[in-house]
Amino acid sequence: MVASQLAAVLSKLQTLYSDHASVVSMNLFVALLCASIVIGHLLEENRWMNESITALAIGLCTGVVILLTSGGKSSRLLVFSEDLFFIYLLPPIIFNAGFSVKKKQFFRNFITIMLFGAVGTLISWSIISFGVIKFFKEMDIGSLEIGDFLAIGAIFAATDSVCTLQVLNQDETPLLYSLVFGEGVVNDATSVVLFNAIQSFDLTNTNHRIALEFIGSFLYLFLASTLLGVAVGLVSAYIIKTLYFGRHSTDREFALMMLMAYLSYIMAELFYLSGILTVFFCGIVMSHYTWHNVTESSRITSKPGTSIIVSSVLLALVMAGRAAFVFPLSFLSNLAHKSANEKISFRQQIIIWWAGLMRGAVSMALAYNQFTRAGHTQLRWNAIMITSTITVVLFSSVVFGLMTKPLIRFLLPHSKVTSAPSGSSSPKSITVPFLGSTQDSFEDSPKGVQQPSSIRALLTTPTHTVHYYWRKFDNAFMRPVFGGRGFVPFVPGSPAERSEHKLPQLQ
Asked: Domain of 114?
């Protein structure tokens, strides 16, 4: 009897200790985030430092302090969880990216972005995969299977161009920013889709049939994920436009937008699709339709030795794999553009190549997913791969990140070019940004500019012509149903109604 009571007390104490440890971990995590933001802001004008490197330095220093002060007993106070990252941290980041992207510039360069983000990622994945098969078998680091080699290729094909985007300005260098930003998002989605496709196939016996099924599965995941994001975004626009929550409660309106955006990500995971691609295109659709259906108040409410050798091989393959597609695909893209302003110069190609050399959280999460068992690395080669991944992420983020600003200043010394507006947009006082920078819209071509009306004109200026006919279709069929700018619900005296009447005078 006494023994059972003592066991119950010890169990309660252990539970209380575990809960307290979780609270301590959460406090430490939030404090580190605050420190990263504050210190990153103070070092924003520094030639070498940026927020990514600052966050890495703070995390490393904190880990060293914890290990030294606790004698190694609190080494697992903060543990990276790929589930936590993919389910809670990644969706709002990607949604904000899709919501705040300059849509006109993004879709004007959509073919080039897809070349770099999708085709380029596949080329990089192939080179890295074949490279690790050749070198790792000679190094004899462990009994890795063909699926592990292909997964390593997908892990290190995932870029992290945050450091470069912090230096580039989408108003000063719109083409370069659009290409680097768009490629980064499509690349992450492609890498995750590729990784999931690899895990879903039995690759012990490969043949042509398996290869065709693999390609079909990849295309299905890519297209289905995109369509799901577009569908959820249109449904949210239709519901908010039809029911007009804002007349009663802006909180419900804002909450519904956030929940439906998150719902698109969760639904993608439920159906084994790419949540990154889904929530990204959901954000684009919401910014084009849903955002203009909400009230103005809702808008105001709302980016070891063996391990060292392995890491060096992986870094070399990453650099070679990226160079193998950036320069050839840039050449092909330039052939399709006659205007010098739309062509990618060699210096810009170097920056695009450099922007994708850094590896970050997506690579870490995929590596933990592939090479950990129940949260631990019990096998030697699994531990080597986790350590090598961390080494590559830290080295590429710190070393390549430190050199990003000097490189861009050297290659683009006069990057502050005053570019003409890509289309008229609403005043900032009316379209307050939802989660980041101001939105731009797909606008009709300026008056007086004759639109191409022949097949020959369509072939010579495809992006502009497709954009023109898309705007006509959008205004005639899509916006009257799903809302959007100029089609907001009419309520006399409402902020949205006043904004609608002010727009013609200000444009």
From this structure: 81-201+305-411
